Amino acid sequence: MANEEDDPIIQEIDVFLARSLLEKLYLFQYPIRPASMTYDDVTHLSAKIKPKQQKVELEMAIDTLNPNYCRSKGEQIALNVDGTCTDETSTYSSKLMDKQTFCSSQAASNVSRYAAAVYKKGELHLTPLHGILQLRPSFTYLDKADAKHREREAANEGGDSSQDEAEDDVKQITVRFSRPETEQARQRRVQSYEFLQKRQAEEHWVHLHYYGLKDSRSEHERQYLFSQGHGLAENTELIKSPSEYLMMLMPPSVEEENDKPMAPSNVLSMAQLRTLPLADQIKILMKNVKVMPFANLLGLLGAGTDPTAVLRCVQQVALLVQGNWVVKSDVLYPKDTSSPHSGVPAEVLCRGRDFVMWKFTQDRWVVRKEVAAVTKLCPEDVKDFLEHMSVARINKGWEFMLPYDEDFVKKHPDIVQRQQMLWMGIQAKLEKVYNLLKEHLTPKKQEAQSAHPLLVSGEQRVNMAKAKVKQNYGQLEKEFQKQKAEMKSSDTSAKTDIPNIRIKEEPMSVEEPMDTSALEGLNNGLVNGLHPAQGSTDPVNGHLPGGCIDRVAQELKAFVASTFKKQFVLTLSELKRLFNLHLASLPPGHTLFSGISDKMLQDMVLDTGCKQILVPFPPQTAASPDELKVYALWEAGDTYDQYRQVLLEIFSKNYRVRRNVIQNQLSQECGEDLNKQEVDRVLKVSFCSLW
Q: Which residue intervals make up region (Disordered) (predicted)?
């Protein structure tokens, strides 16, 4: 007791378990380098990995301009390895040892006790490590140099022999047939070192792409180190009641198990199901049912189940489609499995099924031929995907099997918005994998009389509204001028004859009502996958309510300022992508969820000291309008401001510039003679996000 009083608890920290990078996170231990050099400064030329062996090879550039680099030794090593002639197979094409290879070895055989931790805002997020690899320099180039030396010696020794002596005499060959291998001999051969080395050499290298610390892709991957549900479903292992902890420490004695009747392995009774943790119950139910409304899921879990806990768990094993929960693809197709029909690996099946789910977020109907044409999967696999979540209709296609769940969307707008962010990320991956065209991204138009709700994108709604405004602009202008004249005449009559004021009862309005028939046929109770009642508190036309505009502006300005301090030049498209990632990391109910329009985001960029760079892109460019809008931080307060401003002026005149032109312009404007390495450094620092 005395020790406890002397050592009080200062702070309690919530611990979350992140599973997004489970079995994917490795810890690399690099050799010791000088304190003045960080690995972010090192240029990674190439990287490759053998996943089964957990073996990695990294090729890094050596700074040959460093005063500590011995140029004569570098030239000698390159000469010994490659000889005097250089070709595509040469290790050092520059005739100088300008790179070094690092090979990995496992630092620990059992890494289940280790995890990567990230501390943020009073929360500790843990991600289990899949491997710890120590990188050491590889000296295989010395073996190559020895082989070259032996070849030269052999050529010198055999140079005096004549052509007749070089020819081998014809020899008799005896053919022997090997005896059948016994089981014992086969086991010895399989366990031999030579066989294991051969098996390891047969595994193909998987080439990797290296992204720097400040790259946007690195920032995107670092978000996965945080618990995606913020202590929701994936952290149920860390949330146990005292009785559950006692049950884990002292499990009940297993008796009378032999007396129980044996059930099939794929059958689980509801009584047995309710003995499992809540997360396992939901996973088993979703895996068997595949598509379920939230109300039905609560009913199956029994009375007294906390709906908030169920919401936490279901988001880890299912995705929201038209207000209903559909089981995730990786739950149905675990890693290292394959299709029973075609043998396609699980990763390809998950991508194809995600495409079908995404199509149902865009439309009530999906055509089987279109899915097969995009995914390139066999008809049986595509049919399985569709049968999981839809029903076939003759001469129409496949319709999503459940109606749109309006009640769930109304009650849980924060969950709906979070799921929309997840679907945006899935859509971006599908576009890259399948090279989706615009016809695949936009929902097909249907007749206005259709009884099924359609999905209308925000851009389509804006375009339709603009067309309607242009159509009615002339008529509205005439009516406005007429009303203005009537108001002036009424004001003058009121001033001249105030005692004779009379109130004439007339209809409330003689204006024609706004024609919304074009939108009504498309909306049909469902706009952008959300019920209209859900958006009653959303901002209108990008304008926020007066009570929270200051807070939202401060939050938005802080995000824009921090983003441009890391990446000095960004397109509007990239900025919106980073903003969506930022929103996904925020807790539900944050002020930024009130809605930020593109205009507000662009205005805030200009308010934080950034400028729009009017890059003269060619007219035939395939880039989107958001990709053509380029913004840059004009003054960052560092030593590169002067160089950066010169570069921005250059690119405002031409979208493509040669390196020597940039070097000459920088030298003229800044009054310094910059070499090629210094120009590369300036370009990398100034345009790190586009480099």
A: 146-169
Mean pLDDT value across the chain? 75
Cβ contacts of 43 within 8 Å, gap of 6 or more: 60, 61
| Percent of the chain with pLDDT strictly greater than 70 | 74
Question: Which tokens hold the place of 153?
Answer: 């010696």
User: Would you list the DSSP string of 67-123?
Assistant: TT--HHHHHHHHHHHH-S---TT-S-TTSS--EEEEEEEES-S--TT-EEEEEETTE
Are the beta carbons of 220 and 421 closer than 8 angstroms? no
Question: 351 CB contacts (<8 Å, ≥6 apart)?
Answer: 329, 375, 430, 433, 434
- Strand, coil or helix: 207: strand
Under 8 Å between Cβ of 586 and 642: no
Q: Say if residues 684 and 691 touch (Cβ distance below 8 Å).
A: yes
Six token digits for residue 299: 């009913």
Classify residue 235 by its DSSP letter: G
pLDDT surpassing 50 at residue 542: no
User: Would you say 290 and 333 are in contact if contact means Cβ atoms under 8 Å apart?
Assistant: no
| pLDDT tens per residue across span 297-307 | 888 887 788 88
Nearest to 110 by CA among 130, 127, 94, 125: 130
- Give the contacts of 574 (CB within 8 A, at least 6 positions apart): 216, 689
- Burial pattern 518-541, b for ≥16 Cβ within 10 A else e, equals ebeebbbebbbbbbeebeeeebee
d(CA 377, CA 388): 16
Give the three-state DSSP class for 39: coil
Cα 225 from Cα 249, distance rounded (Å)? 30
Sign of CA dihedral 554, 558, 559, 560: positive
Are 138 and 103 in contact by the 8 Å Cβ rule? The answer is: yes
Nearest Cα residue to 323 out of 387, 236, 404: 404
Taking the C-alpha atoms of residue 406 and residue 419, their distance in angstroms, rounded to an integer, is 15
Sheet with 610-613, strands from edge to edge, namely: 569-571, 630-633, 610-613
Spans of all domains in the chain: 14-62+98-152+191-223, 270-434, 546-687
Helix axes 676-686, 641-651, angle to 10 degrees: 80
Contacts of 259 (CB under 8 A, 6+ apart): none
Q: What is the DSSP secondary-structure string of 621-679?
A: ----HHHH-EEEES--SSTTHHHHHHHHHHHTT-S---HHHHHHHHHHHHS----HHHH
Of 296, 244, 238, the residue nearest 275 (C-alpha): 244
The residue written with tokens 């931790």 in the block is 117
pLDDT reported for residue 509: 40
Tens digit of each residue's pLDDT (9 = 90 or more) over 369-394: 888 888 888 888 899 999 989 999 88
**What amino acid is encoded at 480 in this protein?**
F
Q: How far is CA 69 from CA 75, 394, 409, 607, in A?
A: 11, 75, 64, 47
Q: What three-state secondary structure class fits 514?
A: coil
Tokens of 498: 């105030």
Amino acid, single-letter form, for residue 228: Q
- Residues 493-504: pLDDT tens digits? 544 444 443 434
Nearest to 244 by CA among 206, 284, 278: 278
Q: What is the pTM of this model?
A: 0.33
Provide the CB-side half-sphere exposure for 10 (13 A, CA). 3
Q: Where are the beta strands (DSSP E) in 311-367?
A: 318-321, 324-327, 365-366
> Which helix H or strand E contains 109, and what residues bound it?
none
- Contacts for 375 with CB less than 8 Å, ≥ 6 apart: 351, 352, 355, 382, 434
| Integer Cα distance of 272 and 288 in angstroms | 15
SS (H, E, C) 523-541: HCCCECCECHHHHHHCCEC
